[in-house]
Specification:
By secondary structure, the protein is mainly α. The chain has helices at 5-22, 26-48, 56-63, 67-83, 87-92, 95-122. 20% of the residues are buried.
Length: 123
């Protein structure tokens, strides 16, 4: 069945809107990882002072063991998401696997963000 061009365009738009709503497009998910990293980065700077991205893990571990590894993992994930065109396949094997793993990665990053915020409030 051939769709009328207006209906075809409307269905294509609906699919894009759904992807954005669910953050299920690869570009949206990659961007979300990047944005959440930068939220964590700015809170970390408040805690450890002005440091280069790569120096922050050691500074965070000086505050609480294990925070540096969590930060470093997020930094590496963000760098691959931002700069590696084949990131999804290399890291997750497929877009579908990325969709499954995405909320887990976001939750880990959000947990780190919340922990750093708690530390900043107590500081």
């Amino acid at each position: 069945m051939t769709l009328d061009p207006t209906h075809a365009a409307r269905l294509a738009l609906a699919e894009k809107i759904l992807e954005q709503a669910e953050h299920s497009s690869e570009a949206e998910m990659r961007n979300s990882l990047s944005r959440l990293y930068y939220a964590v980065y700015h809170v970390a700077l408040v805690l450890v002072g002005s440091k280069a991205h790569g120096e922050i893990p050691a500074a965070l571990d000086g505050l609480e063991t294990g925070l540096g590894k969590l930060y470093k993992d997020l930094l590496e994930l963000r760098q691959r998401a931002d700069y590696d065109p084949a990131f999804v396949v290399r890291q997750f094997g497929s877009t579908e696997n990325f969709r499954v793993q995405f909320p887990i990665e976001m939750d880990k990053a959000r947990t780190l963000y919340e922990r750093l915020r708690q530390m900043e409030i107590v500081k």
